[in-house]
């Protein structure tokens, strides 16, 4: 008898789906930096400011190379713990990681990929059944003053590295940058809170709509 063909793995990039609904959104934990923290600050997830779906450090921001140094606030108990500890404790159904924006200012491809891969492997080991989605990095606006450190060329390149890691690690990639960028790949000037970087409440709502309509299947 002929051998059973290996099933084709699902595509890494999450494509458009039907609206997966509020219950799906409620089953996702968001791990990341200051734009992820703004999901809590703007009270956009179930539970509002007390949501249990946002993992960021007490500072509200996080740089990629410090993922295993800076503890996150575990919202259920409002205590600080390593993200791997939180992962083992909560075992979320889904995890979206949006991390690396600050890192592009000083990390080359090799350094970025090695830190990011180590993080993904540690999170997978802590909760093997959690379905992990790696996010592309949000663009900055033309008016963002620190273009020498963080700019859309660097952010797009790093998003490509994150996609490569998703393929390598057998996790999925969600292009959240697509929910916010204009036709030139920039963050529109109307989409930030005045600093060229942090997303407005309305744009974060667009991001959550994108999450719901690009479901993990």
Rg, Å, rounded: 17 Å
- What's the overall average pLDDT, rounded? 97
The outline comes out as globular
How would you characterize the largest beta sheet? Answer: 5 strands, parallel
Strand order of the largest sheet: 2-1-5-6-7
GO molecular function: hydrolase activity
Domain SGNH hydrolase-type esterase: 75-202
Keywords: Hydrolase
Organism: Candidatus Scatomorpha intestinavium
Question: How would you summarize this macromolecular structure in one to three sentences?
Answer:
This protein has 217 residues and is α/β, with parallel strands linked by helices. It is built from 6 helices and 7 strands.
Mind explaining what this structure looks like?
The protein is α/β, with parallel strands linked by helices and 217 residues long. It has helices spanning 21-26, 34-41, 83-90, 109-126, 152-169, 201-212, and strands spanning 28-32, 54-55, 72-74, 79-81, 94-98, 131-135, 172-174. Helix 4 (109-126) packs across helix 5 (152-169). The radius of gyration is 17 Å and the shape is globular.
Question: Which tags fit this structure?
Answer:
alpha/beta; Rossmann fold; two-stranded antiparallel ribbon; 6 helices; 7 strands
SSE diagram, text form:
Elements: H1 21-26, E1 28-32, H2 34-41, E2 54-55, E3 72-74, E4 79-81, H3 83-90, E5 94-98, H4 109-126, E6 131-135, H5 152-169, E7 172-174, H6 201-212
Helix pairs in contact: 3-4, 4-5
Protein name: SGNH/GDSL hydrolase family protein
Organism: Candidatus Scatomorpha intestinavium
Domain SGNH hydrolase-type esterase: 75-202
